[in-house]
Design goal:
The complex is a heterodimer of chains A (about 375) and B (about 90). Chain A is mainly beta. In chain A, about 15% of the residues lie in helices and about 55% in strands. Chain A has 2 domains: about 45 residues; about 325 residues, Porin (Beta Barrel). With about 90 residues, chain B is mainly alpha-helical. In chain B, about 70% of the residues lie in helices and about 0% in strands. Classes of the chains: A mainly beta (about 375), B mainly alpha (about 90).
Chain lengths: ~375, ~90
């Protein structure tokens, strides 16, 4: 009897101990669940923040060996892009460009700075200084990690035949059209200015000026169609307005009488398996103005076609490009053929080895060939 | 002839602005659909390689993909729905 009582007492003690252990385990488990809940909530905050800051951009470094000059290392440019976004309705975008010149001096500039209002699923209002929406290269292909060559096609650099940037307002977006997608951009801005020397227009400057010196706006846009099944992009661009010759007089700019200004362009991108084909045509022209210090009309025209073939498990790309640039000044005209080989360390880190064959098509004028090495990084 | 060309450009420009405004007001009242993973995967394949090499969804954090997607909405002329679909795919694959 005493033995049975002892066994019963021990059993009850063990049960109570086990029960106390179970309670501790449940409390532990509850604490872990609470902790997990907090982590999930915290992760959700990162998925849908109300405001967020984001840094992107691109940079390049390289080596250039021009036929008649010694080879030289160069730092290329560093172009951080800042995004400050509020919900899905507003975003500030700014791209800066830092570059070092031959003398080692650094230069900083704002490539674009806009406040974007996403009005609905099909339209966004973009206000500020924006990359010209005319054509594709200047607005979408110029970043060094996107451009498959180490240099821009002739005529598509700064202040050449292709319009660079604009200060104004733009509506842009896209909408579906029975199996294909249309995209558009329409803008009104201050327009470019003309730079003259010795009675001739030296260049059409379109860095995006903060003052409409001639008092006449320039409007234009691009309309594109994308065929997803064919992986084909087609676009046409046009702009019109007035421009004027700008001169620096002391510390202030003065402007000649305005004259006509028109832009026309067309572009395409076509992917066939690992073959990437792209091309673009652009022409800026200005009319005559008898009262101007540079009275003659003129046109700046450029086009290029490029083919890039990916191989070796998408790690290698062989690229060829041909481009032409025609201006009112014979010394600036160029015909350029280019061959290159790219190695993709990652999809956004690209090593390029290119060779440019440059010719001036005008009799008696020449242009140097160049070897270019570049390491480009998009981030 | 030149006068006619200028009138044509300006008419095209005005028509684009009006079309954007009309579409804007017509769709303001509509409820936005949330992103769809399947549609996003297709839109990602169709669109992200148009200009540049396609980036792996794991390269950026979820929040970093948001601004990237909206930046690309402007660059590539994507619709708002395509942007939300692609974002859902990128965040879901991250």
């Amino acid at each position: 009897m005493r033995f049975k009582l002892s066994v019963l007492t021990c059993a009850m003690g063990l049960a109570m101990y086990a029960n106390a252990g179970a309670a501790t385990d449940i409390e532990k488990l509850k604490a872990e669940v609470d902790d997990l809940k907090q982590q999930v909530e915290s992760a959700a905050e990162w998925k849908k923040p109300i405001t967020l800051v984001h840094l992107a951009g691109f940079a390049s470094v390289g080596y250039t060996d021009t036929k008649s000059e010694p080879g030289t290392f160069n730092t290329g440019s560093f172009s951080p892009i800042l995004h400050y976004q509020f919900n899905e309705s507003v975003m500030l975008e700014a791209e800066l460009e830092f570059a070092t010149d031959e003398g080692g001096n650094s230069d900083a500039s704002i490539e674009y700075m806009t406040i974007d209002l996403f009005m609905n699923d099909y339209a966004a209002l973009v206000v500020g200084k924006f990359l010209s929406p005319l054509g594709q290269f200047r607005q979408n292909m110029h970043p060094s990690w996107i451009n498959k060559m180490a240099s821009a096609p002739v005529g598509f650099g700064h202040d050449q035949a292709a319009s660079n940037a604009e200060v104004g307002a733009m509506v842009r977006g896209g909408f579906p059209m029975s199996g294909i997608y249309a995209n558009y951009a329409a803008y009104l801005g201050n327009g470019p200015t003309l730079e003259a020397d010795a009675g001739e227009i030296e260049k059409i400057e379109s860095p995006g000026v903060n003052k409409d010196g001639d008092g006449k706006k320039v409007g234009g846009g691009r309309f594109g169609l994308y065929f997803p099944n064919q992986k084909l992009d087609l676009g046409i661009s046009a702009a019109t307005g007035k421009v004027a010759v700008r001169s620096l007089s002391g510390a202030t700019y003065t402007y000649d009488d305005p004259r006509d200004y028109d832009v026309l362009g067309a572009d395409f991108i076509w992917h066939i398996n690992t073959l990437d084909l792209r091309g673009e045509y652009t022409k800026q022209k200005y009319g005559a103005q008898a009262s101007s210090s540079a009275p003659d009309a003129g046109a700046w025209e450029a086009w290029y076609v490029q083919a890039a073939y990916g191989f070796g498990g998408a790690k290698w790309e062989a690229v060829v490009r041909y481009s032409e640039y025609d201006t009112p000044q014979d010394s600036k005209d160029r015909n350029q053929s280019m061959v290159g080989l790219n190695y993709l360390f990652a999809s956004n880190v690209i090593g390029k080895v290119d060779y440019e064959f440059n010719d001036n098509p005008n009799a008696g004028l020449t242009a140097d060939d160049r070897l270019l090495l570049q390491l480009a990084y998009g981030f | 002839m030149k006068f006619k060309t200028e009138i044509l450009y300006k008419t095209m420009l005005a028509a684009t602005f009006i079309a954007a405004t009309v579409m804007s007001s017509a769709t303001m009242a509509n409820e936005k659909q949330s992103g769809d993973f399947g549609r996003g995967a297709k839109a990602w394949v169709d669109n992200c390689g148009r200009c540049h090499n396609v980036r792996d969804p794991k390269e950026l954090r979820d929040d970093q993909w948001i601004s990237t997607a909206f930046h690309m909405r402007l660059r590539a002329g994507l619709t708002g729905q395509q942007t939300r679909d692609i974002l859902t795919f990128l965040q879901g694959s991250n």
